[in-house]
Amino acid sequence: MNYRMIAYLSGVIILIEATFMLLPALVALIYGEASGWCFLITILAAGAAGFLLTLLRPKKRDMYAREGFVITALAWIVISLIGAAPFTMSGQIPSYLDAVFEMVSGFTTTGSSVVPNVEVLDRCMNFWRCLSHWLGGMGILVFMLAIVNLGGGQSNHLLRAESPGPTVSKMVPNMRKSAAILYSIYVGMTLLQIMLLLLGGMPLFDSLCHSFATAGTGGFGVKAASIGYYDSYYLQGVIAVFMVLFGVNFNAYYFLLMRKWRNALHITEVRTYFGIIAVSTLLITANITGLLGSVYDALHHAFFAVSSIMTTTGFATVDFNQWPGLSRLILVMLMIVGACAGSTGGGVKVSRMVIVFKTAAFEVRKLLHPASVKVLTVDGKRVSRETIQGVQSYLVVYFAITVISILLVSLDGYDLVTTVTAVEATLNNIGPGLEMVGPAGNYSMFSPLSKIVLTMDMLLGRLELFPLLIMLMPSTWRKH
Amino acid sequence: MKIIIIGDGKIGSILAEQLSGENHEVTLIDRAGDPLEQSNNLFDVMVVEGDGMAHAVQKEAGVESADLVIACTGADETNLLCCLIAKKLGAKNTIARVREHKYVEELSLIKDDLGLSMTINPESMCATEMARVLRIPSAIKVDTFARGQVEILKLPVTEGSVLDGMALMELGKLRAKVLVCAVERGENEVYIPTGTFRLQAGDHISLVATPVEAIRFFRQTGIPRSRVRQSLIVGGGRIAFYLAKQLLSAGMDVKIIESDGSRCEDLSELLPEATVIHGDGTDQQLLREEGIEHMDAVVSLTGIDEENIIISLYAARATNAKVITKINRSSYEDIIDDLELGSVFYPRKICADNVVRYVRAMQASNAYASMETLCKISGGKVEALEFRVTKEAAYCGVPLQDLSLRKNFLIGCISRSGKPITPRGSDTIEVGDSVIVVTTHSGIATLDDIFEKK
User: Fold this and answer.
1) Which homologous superfamily does the CATH classification assign to the domain defined by B230-345?
2) Which sequence spans correspond to the domains of chain B?
3) Using a CB-CB distance cutoff of 8 angstroms, which residues of chain A are in contact with residue B33?
4) Which residues of A touch B40 (CB under 8 A)?
């Protein structure tokens, strides 16, 4: 294990985080909030620590799969621990455990909150919560890859560990350029959303925060009633559409930029994703029309809820916890499916679902024609046996973690729906679940043990299980 | 530059490594997923799985906007077809690996029709370099510049030689016009020496000289300069064939030992002047029987690295012959360097160097000077580059002492209208000159790069 390289890269990441923390400090300065000092202190401390770590120039720059996984897992834990400091220091979230929960929820783009009413938080604190979504959405390591030249192709291990999806493909041969393209698309779409929200009359501060939270498919807001606070179908519509857009595989946007329309429109995963959104929206609309009175209102809120849950954002316009059983069940299922691979969303990912269901269909056909040979293809390309096995073992580990987490959280003695959806909402990086953790509720009532379990679930979900599990395995750290 | 490499084999992967290392955008195409996966992990490249001959696959790799397509799969026919398709789809330049003897002959006929910029024949390239060393057996490595008028020779400084302990400024009294351009000491140290630099026994020195001056230098310093008359080649593969052909045409006697009977027949048909022996080259008895003790040169060219190492170790101990060893895998280089294997040649590397040289020349040739040759000396840590000055530039006509050369750069030779000049402070660079630059910096693209920026 190349410890010096791990230390060095952690230092770089801490420096990047410290730089981004200047933004909330600036917000504090503009609004004259005293809690801005907490950011400055954290920036100075983290900056010093990061600087010292980067002085440890690695002797050799060799990085293999294990270093890639460990750096990724470690980096996410470290940035969460540092990012949580201002909350506790300023007394806005007195318990450090709660602050870490909030910060992990931010970076993993979950959006589960322990704060009963976010409106009492200082503006700089709210800004930092939303900015953490934006950073975590595309990934802080990908950001590092875009600005730091690691040389060699070994940085591929980092990209693979942080990017969601069963397989990772670069858009262009050069790692730095690929990362830069991803971030350019990301920044461009975020700016567009900010502009559209401003046009709809949303205040600048709110527009910034909500756009950051939408881009990362996070779900933190600055209002207690989430997006429901804005009584404008235009604003809600813009956010709903952008949630859907940020849940699309970014390869599609790259194809669009390259004017390869056919390629962009023929990605099976993206088509399936839009199909699921359409069908779910129609079913829920039919189900809740009676409740809301008009078909138009029902369609609007159903679309918002579906896109919010499917993309694992977690914004709400109305309390969907009050909806009938069928609608709520559809939403829970969407939680598990999640967004596309290569997007900023969480969940199991549509592409894994496509592969699993195609494999299942093949196996059934194989029972009829035992001697038949058929190769599984997605987008006209053969899916390798390793990928299929990888997806299957991912699902097994996923369900094992779900079950263990549910058992641990159930020790708190809350009702079944609360317990199960709390785990699902954190593991899939959504935010709100149902009942007590629904859009109107929050996570503050859980015991410290449950909070730790749910915090771990958020990290496991964002990093797609394996980096964190590998970091926790003793054999990873053993010297062969 | 955007470069597409078709075939992720021995040559393909080393090309991907070196070209991506020089910040080119490299895309690898191969039919098999496993080697691609490995290359993807090791180098900063993009990989595309599929048949390189299929135009859909080439398009996916972005062939339309590619500056260069290199086809180096195992089959010549595939490579030629890949290049033909790539050219039709809009690739600017194409390079094909062609190594079958029969195609090499007819290539000059069809090269233009196929639109090939260059063909690479790793075996023939390797054989040429080996033949050069056999011409001057005291040298470990020989590179030629300015159409053969200037050579860079790598020599060991032996214990008790005149050179041991000599400062470079004293070389002048040897009355041979040579210039020491690089000194390797120990495992990792490489110097571009100045006049006060003192040589030690065990150093490997590289010197720039004309062939005539090199012989004079050998005479002055007492380095043996006997010619190779009898040579033994163990292993009768493609390199052996190309090497034997060159040695025979230089008037040497060549004996080839090959274990495969039908290959022996082929060789004897193709090379009627050579003595072809059917037998196991690792058999000590056979080697002695064929008179290994009396050979001036022994070349180990079997397909198995371990066999080559054993044969060369034996030859180095049992004879005074110049020993040459071919090694395919380059992973244990540091260990191999410690062994008494004479001159070690890595065909993959030689081939990769040739392609890298071509790629550099492609982008390096600016309006004032074009790169003609690039050689890696001293284990790849030092590069010797030849530039041809084509147009009046700022550095033309200025005495060298007034031009500030960057650190670790050295002008080894200026060749003017066919006459090599060992440069002194008062000499100048003129239009039409070939300038040989030696440097420890990698990736020099133009002649302007060697001067201090004003």
Assistant:
1) NAD(P)-binding Rossmann-like Domain (3.40.50.720)
2) 2-120, 142-221, 230-345, 363-450
3) 384
4) 153, 156
B2-120 and B142-221 agree in CATH topology: no
The 3-state DSSP class for residue A445 equals coil
The residue written with tokens 């931010």 in the block is: A106
Burial class (CB in 10 A: 0-12, 13-18, 19+), B402: exposed
Fold of B2-120: Rossmann fold (3.40.50)
CA of A150: which chain B residue's CA is closest? B44
Question: Which amino acid is present at B89?
Answer: L
CB–CB contact B46 A172 (8 Å): yes
In a structure prediction context, what are the per-residue pLDDT tens digits for chain A, which is 480 residues long?
A: 778 888 888 999 999 999 999 999 999 999 999 999 999 999 999 999 999 998 887 777 777 778 888 888 999 999 999 999 999 999 999 999 999 999 999 999 998 999 888 888 999 999 999 999 999 988 888 888 887 777 655 677 777 777 777 777 777 887 888 888 889 999 999 999 999 999 999 999 999 999 999 999 988 988 888 888 888 899 999 999 999 999 999 889 988 988 888 888 888 899 999 999 999 999 999 999 988 889 999 999 999 999 999 999 989 888 888 999 999 999 999 999 999 988 888 889 999 999 999 999 888 888 888 887 778 888 878 888 888 898 999 999 999 999 999 999 999 999 999 999 999 999 999 988 898 998 888 899 999 999 999 999 999 999 888 888 888 888 888 765
Q: Which residue type sits at A225?
A: A
Nearest CA distance, B363 vs chain A (angstrom): 18
* Interior angle at CA A106, CA A100 and CA A108, nearest 5: 100
Domain ranges of chain A: 3-175
Name the B residues in 163-202 with CB < 8 Å from any A CB: none
Q: What CA–CA distance (Å, rounded) separates B191 from B382? A: 9
Residue A168 · residue A159 · CB < 8 Å? yes
A255: tokens are 């194809």
Site from B19, B27, B41, B65 to mutate, A interface, most A CB atoms within 10 angstroms: B41
Rounded Cα distance between B415 and B429, Å, is: 9
CA angle at A344 for the pair A338 and A347, rounded to the nearest 5°: 20
> Tell me, which fold does domain B363-450 have in CATH?
Alpha-Beta Plaits (3.30.70)
User: Residue A375's CB: how many other CB atoms inside 10 A?
Assistant: 10
**Which among B26, B33, B41 has CB closest to A173?**
B26
Token code pair at residue A370: 């035992």
Q: Could you say which of B21, B42, B44 has the minimum Cβ distance to residue A173?
A: B44
**How does DSSP classify residue B111?**
H
For domain B142-221, the CATH architecture is: 2-Layer Sandwich (3.30)
**Residues of chain B positioned with their CB less than 8 A from the CB of A157:** 41
Bridge partner list, B167? B198
Asked if B27 reaches chain A (Cβ–Cβ under 8 Å), the answer is yes
Task: Nearest by CB to B46, from A65, A154, A173: name it.
Answer: A173
- Sign of the dihedral defined by the CA atoms of residues A199, A203, A204, A208, in that order: negative
Interchain CB contact of B46 with A (< 8 Å): yes
How do beta strands A381-382 and B369-377 pair? unpaired
